[in-house]
Specification:
The chain has 441 residues and is of the alpha+beta class. It is built from 14 helices and eleven strands. It has a four-stranded antiparallel beta sheet with strand order 4-3-6-5, with helices on both faces. Strands 8-7-10-9 form a four-stranded antiparallel beta sheet.
């Protein structure tokens, strides 16, 4: 009887312990759910009749941090929150305007955005949404970003596409500037632009710009940072502005760009438009309307290599040199030359590759610059060998014929794009002024 009661009490204790564990797990799950619910209900901003929750803000910060290389710490969230929240406000305004005008992002357009981002971020095609979920990021935040981008492009083109006209005189002015710039430097640059519409926003943008510069200097990818933070229309292609003449850069940016070396980035630059960070990708000399000159010729080379034994006398070296002349004197064409290489040359004889002329040493260049294809060069003597070269193929780049109509169309397109970008910024500014925006953080 005593043994039975003991077993009964032990069973009750095990059940009690199990119930305690289950209760603890339930409380933990409930706590997590309550935190999520609180973040979902807590309002970060109100845009007209819609709210942006704290959860929405944290989801977007997590997305930006993941793609920009920031650690998603509480300190990072605090620093990025003001700028990211303004991005969410702008997105919500754009989506509301698109809804008012019955413009939507199509599934195919969204899929194109997914594919582009997967390519940029080196994510396996079709795995973007899964990758976000695996990293604890709500995929809805990037879908909203895609939709806002797509409908905003449609809104801007619908409102201004037919009203902006580029005159022939404007195109002529650019053509004259290009002609005048011939022989002068051109700069391949990328940009990050942070807008400063108010004193408070100017301070926030200035602080963020400083952090972005440091992050890039620490190794973060400039294009990725641009796509996540820049408020210029160039953000969608990594901030790339193409080749620019100094006159196109403006008084604020021109001297900074001129001071940079290829690969360098600037410190934050305060302008009337906002705060810029500029990267100089490359520099070249303008060819005017004809563009840069064609590249150097490319040559395919074979060599006869005769080794000079160590401690050879000058007379012995002369004999080896004479032998190289004798072997190649009457050889014409690479096939015949190849036969000589197999029977008389060292193991280093044969095809040595294809090179651009600017990759070849000055001594070798002197031997082959004007050498006809299939003719052996004069011998070249070094400390340990005698070499005879033959050019088997030579490709000389042909300058592209000038197509003035194509140039004019490209200039007109660039001017149109620039005008649309300015109109888009004014459009967003006006929509913000007409909207009820309340920041509650």
């Amino acid at each position: 009887m005593m043994q039975s009661q003991t077993h009964y009490r032990a069973g009750l204790n095990r059940v009690s312990a199990l119930l305690s564990i289950i209760s603890s797990i339930a409380i933990a799950i409930l706590s997590v759910s309550q935190i999520h619910a609180q973040e979902t209900l807590r309002i970060a901003a109100v845009v007209n009749d819609e709210m942006i929750s704290l959860y929405d803000l944290k989801a977007r910060i997590a997305l930006v941090a993941a793609f920009s290389g920031f650690d998603n710490t509480p300190e990072t969230q605090k620093r990025l929150a003001p700028q990211i929240l303004q991005q969410l406000v702008n997105e919500r305004i754009r989506l509301q305007e698109a809804k008012r005008l019955n413009l939507k992002a199509k599934e195919g357009e969204i899929n194109n955005e997914k594919s582009e981002l997967e390519s940029q971020a080196k994510i396996k095609p079709g795995n973007l949404m899964k990758s976000l979920k695996d990293n604890g990021i709500n995929p809805e935040t990037i879908l909203q970003q895609f939709k806002a981008k797509i409908v905003w492009s449609k809104l801007v083109n619908r409102k201004f596409g037919r009203t902006i006209q580029i005159s022939d005189e404007e195109v002529d002015e650019v053509i004259n500037e290009i002609k005048h710039n011939k022989g002068k430097p051109e700069y391949l640059i990328s940009e990050i632009l942070l807008l400063t519409d108010s004193a408070q926003k100017a301070e926030e943008s200035s602080n963020l710009a400083t952090r972005l510069v440091q992050k890039i200097l620490d190794g973060a990818n400039f294009s990725t940072i641009t796509r996540n933070f820049s408020q210029s229309s160039s953000a969608q292609n990594g901030g790339n502005l193409g080749w620019n003449r100094i006159g196109e850069l403006g008084v604020d940016l021109a001297p900074v760009v001129q001071s940079l070396k290829p690969g360098q980035i600037s410190n934050p630059i305060q302008t009337l438009d906002g705060i810029y960070i500029i990267k100089l990708n490359a520099q070249r000399t303008s060819g005017g309307l004809e563009g840069p000159p064609p590249g150097p010729p490319t040559v395919s080379l074979r060599q006869l290599h005769l080794a000079i034994p160590k401690q050879s006398t000058p007379a012995q070296i002369s004999q080896i040199k004479l032998l190289s002349k004798t072997l190649t004197k009457n050889v014409t064409g690479c096939s015949a030359f190849n036969t000589i290489l197999k029977t008389s040359g060292s193991k280093l004889s044969g095809d040595i590759g294809t090179f651009k002329m600017d990759q070849i040493s000055e001594e070798m260049k002197g031997l082959i610059k004007d050498l006809p294809i299939g003719k052996a060069s004069l011998p070249s003597v070094s400390s340990n060998s005698v070499v005879v070269l033959m050019v088997c193929n030579r490709q000389t780049p042909i300058p592209i014929a000038l197509d003035l109509d194509k140039i004019r169309r490209k200039i007109k397109g660039n001017l149109m794009s620039s005008q649309l970008n300015l109109a888009a910024r004014r459009y967003l500014r006006d929509l913000r002024l007409e909207s009820f925006i309340e920041i509650r953080l």
